[in-house]
C-alpha cells in the first residue's frame, strides 16, 4: 500500500513492484511525503533495486531523503539523497516487510526516486530501466518487476524485429508480450547484431518508436534461448462465425457482403463487419482442435474502408456451449484489450496466461 501526497507511479504486488516519486523524472515537488509498505509472502525476503535516487543534497539528507526500514527488526537503511547514495544498486534484506519513506522540504532540483523490488524467490538480477549495458553474455535472463510499463523512457522496435539496445528493457518486454505488466516475471533474451532501421508498433497497450541503426539489438525469447525458440506460428483458422454481418449496397447498387469468412488477417479488400446498429456483436474463430493461443493481431477493414475496432473482450470455449471470458493475469475482471486507432496498422495483444481452447470469440 502507499499513502501521502508525494507518491508517483506505483504498482505493488506480493512478488514484485515498481514505485516512484511524484512527477518522476521531472523535479519532485516541495513539502511532500510518501510512505510505501512492501509486503512479501511469508518465508521470503525482499530484494530492492535502486533505479534512480536523485534528491537535492543536504547535510545528513535533512531536506529531502529516502529511508527504508524493517518495522519488525528495527533495521534501517539510509537516509539517502544525492550526496549519500546507496552503496550498491541492489539491496538484499532479511525481511518480508519493508517501509519506504520519502520526505521533501524546499528544494530546486532533483528527479526524485525510482525503485523496484522482488522477492527472494527471484534471486536473478532485477532489471528496470535497462539503459545501461546488459550482461556481457549473448544470452541472459533477468527478472522484470511489475509496473514497468509506465516508467519513464522510450523503446524502439517491435516483437518481430527486436528492439534497439538503448530501449528500456522491461518496458520492451511488456511491449513484446513476454510478460504482463501487472505481474512482471522472468525474461530471457539475447543480444544480437543491430539493424539499420527499427519500425514502430503498437502492442500490448504500448507505442514503440521508429529508431535508427544500433550496434546491438535485444531479442526476447519465450523459452531459454539456449534451446530452440518458442513456436510463434500463425494458427490455422478452420471456420469463422459471427453474430451478424453487413450486407452493403454501394452507390452503384452492387451488393457487398461483409461476411465472417472475410475476417482473416490476410484477406484483401473489405473485411468482416457486423450489421449496422448491432449491439454486443461478436466474431468467432474455430481452430479445428484445442490449441494453445498466445495472442491476437487485429487490423482495420482496408485503406478503402476506414473501419476498425478500438477495443474488445475475448471469450473462449472448448465445446462452443460453455464460454469463459478472458480475465488475464489479474483474474478479477474481464480484460478489455486496446485495439486499433486506424484501419491500416496492425495491433498485437498477448494472452498472459495463454488460452487453451478450440473456439475464440
Q: How are the SSEs ordered, and which strands pair?
A:
Layout: E1 2-3, E2 7-12, E3 16-21, E4 33-39, E5 46-54, E6 65-69, E7 76-80, E8 90-92, E9 97-103, E10 112-119, E11 139-144, E12 157-158, E13 162-164, H1 169-176, E14 185-193, E15 202-203, E16 206-207, E17 216-221, E18 239-242, E19 246-249, E20 255-258, E21 283-298, E22 311-312, E23 315-317, E24 324-325, E25 337-338, E26 347-360
Parallel strand pairs: 15-26
Antiparallel strand pairs: 1-4, 2-3, 3-10, 4-9, 5-8, 5-10, 6-7, 6-9, 11-14, 12-13, 13-17, 14-17, 15-16, 18-21, 19-20, 21-26, 22-25, 23-24, 23-26
The CATH superfamily of the largest domain is identified as: Spermadhesin, CUB domain
Instruction: Provide the succession of SSEs.
Output: EEEEEEEEEEEEEHEEEEEEEEEEEEE
Fill in the CATH topology of the largest domain: Jelly Rolls
Which architecture of the largest domain per CATH? Sandwich
Count of discrete structural domains: 3
| Number of helices, counting only DSSP H or I runs of 4 residues or more | 1
pLDDT average, as an integer?
89
The stretches of 5 or more residues where confidence is low (pLDDT under 50) are 224-230
Instruction: Output the radius of gyration.
Output: 24 Å
Oligomer: single chain
Cα-to-Cα separation, first versus last residue = 36 Å
Largest sheet: 7 strands, mixed
Residues in β-strands, percent: 35-45%
Helix amount: under 10%
CATH C-level label of the largest domain:
Mainly Beta
Shape: elongated
User: In total, how many beta strands?
Assistant: 26
Supply the helix-strand structural class. mainly beta
Domain LCCL: 115-218
Keywords: Disulfide bond, Membrane, Phosphoprotein, Transmembrane, Transmembrane helix
Domain CUB: 7-120
GO molecular function: signaling receptor activity
